[in-house]
Write a structure and sequence with these properties.
coiled coil, transmembrane helix, 2 domains, mainly alpha, 9 helices, transmembrane, membrane, single chain
Length: 327
């Protein structure tokens, strides 16, 4: 079975090369073939010159199209503004065209009268196709390189980090106040005798909802900050290595080091505050859950009914989340 699969794979690769790569290679090297026919001046080859010239005209947009498919959408070329993107694609397409045509022109020996325009067709066009593939691979690898970060980008990222840090600190203060209030209310409820039923059910229910919403809002804010942290971490690494790559003045390198240090400090402080906030949210959720049980135990029949309805809503929300994950 393995031999059959291997044989089928080899046949498929051969069919792909013959019916896809070779036709593309023939069109791409059309300028070299037209130039070779013109330079050789063999009379019986002149009728084919017109066809090769038509192929040369098609080779330019074809090379641009091949480069576009080879480069990633979010790379340095395709991710650029439209004018810069298309000029970059055109320039790289011409480089691809030049590479395969220089190879083809040098490989193709001058023809004499009575000889074919192309001898050894398969090795000639096949090698030209491999040259083109190699050039496209190199372009793709080059295009994936990270763009050099600028001082302005690092400074803007540091400003955004400071703003995010300010928001997270405010969220931490809000969660801390809510957690203290919940803890105080729990102490008050636990100090009551179980037989008393004069606890205000409505105010406790509202307080539970406020506590839950506070934790939920804070958790979303921390998750958003964590996403920003992942983006900043990559920029921090690039900013630290940027001064080593700068070949301009010492002042520019010093500015980059200063901006990178500012960003690193803000990034580290933001990460610390987010981790601290997530810990407080976990504690707040635990106390809010305890408050829920205290309402059930201290607010009579209406408290028990509210607790059961709340548990049903929680279970329904869990089922909906499970169903959304399986879709």
């Amino acid at each position: 079975m393995s031999r059959n699969k291997s044989g089928c794979g080899g046949c498929g690769l051969a069919i792909f090369a013959v019916f896809f790569l070779l036709p593309l290679a023939i069109v791409l090297i059309a300028p070299a073939m037209a130039a070779r026919i013109h330079v050789d001046g063999v009379p019986e080859h002149q009728p084919f010159l017109r066809e090769w010239l038509w192929g040369a005209a098609v080779s330019v947009p074809l090379s641009v199209l091949l480069v576009r498919f080879a480069l990633k959408r979010d790379g340095r070329v395709r991710g650029a503004p439209p004018l810069k993107r298309w000029s970059g694609l055109l320039g790289r397409g011409l480089v691809l065209l030049a590479a395969v045509n220089v190879f083809a022109f040098l490989w193709k020996a001058p023809s004499a009268a009575g000889e074919y325009a192309v001898d050894d067709t398969l090795p000639f066009f096949g090698t030209a196709a491999l040259v083109g593939v190699g050039v496209l691979v190199l372009m793709s690898l080059w295009d994936r390189r990270a763009r050099r970060v600028t001082v302005q980008e690092v400074r803007e990222a540091a400003v955004q980090a400071d703003r995010a840090l300010k928001r997270v600190r405010a969220e931490n203060a809000k969660v801390r106040r809510q957690a203290e209030q919940v803890q105080a209310r729990l102490v008050e409820l636990q100090a009551r005798t179980p037989a008393r039923s004069d606890v205000e059910f409505h105010s406790l229910r509202v307080f539970h909802r406020e506590s839950y919403q506070c934790a939920d809002t804070a958790h979303d804010a921390y998750r958003s900050a964590q996403t920003s942290l992942h983006t900043m971490a990559f920029l921090v690494r690039r900013a630290h290595s940027a001064p080593l790559r700068l070949t301009v003045s010492r002042r520019a390198r010093a500015e980059m080091r200063e901006a990178a240090a500012h960003l690193a400090r803000s990034h580290g402080e933001l990460r610390t505050q987010v981790d601290h906030g997530l810990g407080m949210v976990r504690d707040l959720n635990a106390n809010t859950s305890e408050l829920k049980h205290q309402i059930r135990d201290n607010c009579g029949a209406q408290g028990r009914r509210w607790f059961e309805e709340l548990e049903d809503r929680i279970e329904q929300a869990r089922e909906e989340r499970r169903a959304s994950r399986t879709r």
